[in-house]
Amino acid sequence: MKTILEALYHGKLQPNMTIVPSHPEYRYACKQVAAETQQWRERLGEEVFRELEEYLDLCDSVNSMQVEAAFLEGFRLGANLLIEVTGDREALLS
């Protein structure tokens, strides 16, 4: 691909699929979540746990929508900042 925009258009660039948080406690927290999920599955039984999973999936969907909105707003803000800065470039050179 010649440009980032072309790569995005053709589906070659998917940053959401490669992001791994760099926080030092991330992997440990993931292991804790997996262990506790198994404990809840054993305590609740398959049927009730399936209902809980549906609820948690709904919560994840809401969180994903919020993260997407924050990303879009941040991207717009950055793009507008670049437009503003480059728009006044000639005034700075005068």
Question: Your description of this structure?
Answer:
The protein is an all-alpha fold and 94 residues long. It has one domain (24-93). The protein contains four helices and no strands. Helix 2 packs antiparallel against helix 3. The mean pLDDT is 89.
Number of structural domains: 1
Strand content: under 5%
**Helix and strand string, N-terminal first?**
HHHH
Taking all Cα atoms into account, the compactness measure Rg is: 21 Å
**How many individual β-strands?**
0
Estimate the helix proportion, in percent: over 70%
Major beta sheet summary: none
Tally of alpha and pi helices: 4
Shape descriptor reads elongated
Global mean pLDDT: 89
N-end to C-end Cα span: 38 Å
Report the uncertain regions: none
Please state the structural category: mainly alpha
Topology:
Elements: H1 4-9, H2 26-44, H3 46-87, H4 89-93
Short note summarizing the structure:
It is built from four helices and no strands.
Tags for this model:
94 residues; single chain; 0% strand; mainly alpha; 4 helices
